[in-house]
Amino acid sequence: MIAHDDVDRIMAVMLAAFDPFYGEAWTRAQVENALLLGSCRYLLVDQDGRVPGEGRSAAGFALLRAVLDEEELLLFAIRPEFRRRGLGKQLLDFVLASAKAAGTRRMLLEMRRGNDAGRLYEAAGFLPIGVRPNYYRHADGKRADAITFAREID
After folding, report:
1. Which is the catalytic residue, given 24, 42, 71, 121?
2. What integer pLDDT is reported at residue 50 of this predicted model?
3. Which of these is catalytic: 32, 70, 110, 135?
């Protein structure tokens, strides 16, 4: 079951974290529909790196989809005011640990070329495995490649 206030928290983080210029944010309906599939899950963290209690806002979230023994990191965001404090690394470590506990063998993600989060993913052992040319469309009409990354879960 999807907690309505958790979707509110995801949307609040996404609106704060994703620059509209790049067109990467999902709509509320897209998030809700993904979570209704049953193969998707989410993780929330507060500014202290804990699961936010009732009434507390989220500082970051991850949205994932599982298929067989792989999991795809669909969305990952930390509110700008909480970046550069290790919270992204902490959330990503939690994502990877929970994936391992669930029997996931490989984690995939896709991101816009030039996204600063690439450093975080590479530091966590993700390696580029493919490119989707001109996948993203920016607000000015220019296009950017999507880079696919993978990491084995050991």
Report:
1. 121
2. 87
3. 110
